[in-house]
Amino acid sequence: MAALAAEQLVAEAERSVRVERPVELELDLGNLTALDTNPLAAGAGAWLRSLARDNTQLLVNAVWQLPSERLPEGVVASLPPPSTRMPREKPVPRPRPPTRWEQFAKLKGIRKKKKSGLAWDEGRKEWRRRWGYQRANDETKEWVLEVPDSADPNEDQFAKRVAAKRERVAKNELNRLRNIARAQKSKVPGAGLAPTPQPSKAELGEAIRVARASTASVGKFQEKLPKEQEPRNAGKRRKFEPLIGDFSAERRRQLELLDVISSRKPRLDTTKAANRQLREDDQEQAAKRKKMRPKGGKGGKSHNRNNKGKGQHRKSGMKQLGKRK
After folding, report:
1. What are 215-268's pLDDT values in tens digits?
2. Could you tell me if 244 and 99 are in contact, meaning their C-beta atoms sit under 8 angstroms apart?
3. Tens digit of each residue's pLDDT (9 = 90 or more) over 89-102
4. Euclidean distance between CA atoms 44 and 23, whole angstroms
């Protein structure tokens, strides 16, 4: 009796796993979906639940036939790539274009090193978060600040720190907008001038300079205003090579420098060499004249002797005049 009951239990379990359909289901194991093309018969809700259960069982049976491996979390099956294109409301997002720093790092071979999320806090002697709330070495929680020697002793260091943080945040936001504009190949916005109700003379001069340089010729053919003065410190700006792009010019300069260093016969500047030789000749002539100069010259002993004799004559003459009186 016990053996018969066990056989019945096994048969019922196999009957629940085995499902037969007139037309096999179209399975897409990559998306874990099944398409049933069999005709539907009108029935009650119980029949629909049974149909959904059988189709799900067929999908699970197909998953168990895939290659699998056992992990600490359980048995995991390797799904094949999906074969059905699933419709979506919006287009697939495009990959984010690299920023200017990412392009520069790629050219120079700079690799990003991942930092740990924890940092040692010297004040509390414990490990804390590196960023965010209750981070390690948080300067904003200090109740006293040291005044630098070069700063004004009456200056509020707390307000200065808050203003510096606001400037950093604004600069980061401006760089972010510039990266977005550069990625979209649009005009990169500049810093510009903030409107003020009563602009000063310096601000008006800066606005005139920006407006003059905004023309197509960068202000080269722009007419001057009456009684307009030349801006101060408006010399030529230094031009630097771009950090990204074509490095052929830089490579050529480096090769030319190596050729000059490695050449056996260095380049000779004849003008500089001639001037140096003339200067050395003049120094030698001056040294010879100094040696040939007589010892009893101006300011020597003979001059002192003559002066001494003249002084004695004057003194003797004054004595004789005194005796006559």
Report:
1. 888 777 888 877 777 766 666 667 777 777 777 888 888 888 888 887 766 567
2. no
3. 888 888 888 888 88
4. 22
Q: What is d(CA 203, CA 209) in angstroms, rounded to the nearest whole number?
A: 10
Tokens representing 310 are 């003249």
Strand partners, 316: none
Query: Are 62 and 29 contacting, i.e. CB atoms less than 8 angstroms apart?
Result: yes
Looking up tokens 């059988």 gives 54
Structure tokens at 102: 């990412």
Q: What is the DSSP letter of 298?
A: T
280 to 44, 112, 267, 292: CA distances (angstroms): 118, 58, 21, 19
CA–CA distance, 126 with 132 (Å, rounded to integer): 16
List all residues 6 or more positions away from 33 whose beta carbon is below 8 Å from its beta carbon: 27, 59, 84
Q: What angle is formed at CA 162 by the lines to CA 158 and CA 165, rounded to 5 degrees?
A: 140
- How far apart, in Å, do the first and last CA atoms of the chain sit? 177
pTM attached to this predicted model: 0.33
Mean pLDDT (the chain, rounded)? 79
